[in-house]
Structures are given as structure tokens and as C-alpha cells.
Here is the input.
Amino acid sequence: MKVFEVNGIFFLDLEQAELHALNTHYKIKHHDVNDSENLEVECEGQDVYIVSENDERTDVFYEVYTRDITSYEDDETVMMFEYENITVKSIPLERAELSDRLKQEIEKQVQNAIDNLND
Here is the structure.
């Protein structure tokens, strides 16, 4: 992943960096950034967290809700667990400045935790 720097301010988008540097003497520098290769997402029961290379944990939070599924053939109601509102450090996952790979891994581990509830 590339980030762009203008006078010590970093941007993920080149056009934003260009706009910030417009009509100044500042140059735009670009840096290659490690794309979260050293982070892993793990699941213990219902707890999902991100583990860094030096074993620091960042908790991932999500809301669990139940949905009733009624089978009309045998009048049996089954409760299915589902999730919503995944957050990392109180920021919704879809707005978090995380790599796509890490976001997908977080969603996968949350789904695994929910699947374990449904078994």
C-alpha cells in the first residue's frame, strides 16, 4: 500500500496530497507501507481480536442478535444467531483505516464465532 506525505501530513489518496500541496513549495513524497502482513485475527469462543507481531491484542466488538426461523412442517422454532456492527477501537469496520485483507479476516473470524453459536 502507498501513502503520500506532504510536509509531514500523510494521505492515502494522491489527489488529496496534490490538493494539499497545491500553491506551496512542498513536494509530495510517497512511501510503501506494510499492508498489515504482521497482524493476525484470532477467535476464542465469542471473543475476536487482532494480534500483532509482539503479541499485543486489540479487541474486535460486534453485536449478536437472534432471528426466529419457524418450520411450518413441524411447528418447530429454531433460533439463529447473527451479527452486525463490527467495530475496532470504537470505529465501524467499514470506516476503519485497515487493509482489505485484514477487514476480510475480521469478518471471517466473527462469522466463525457466530457459526459456533449456531451449532
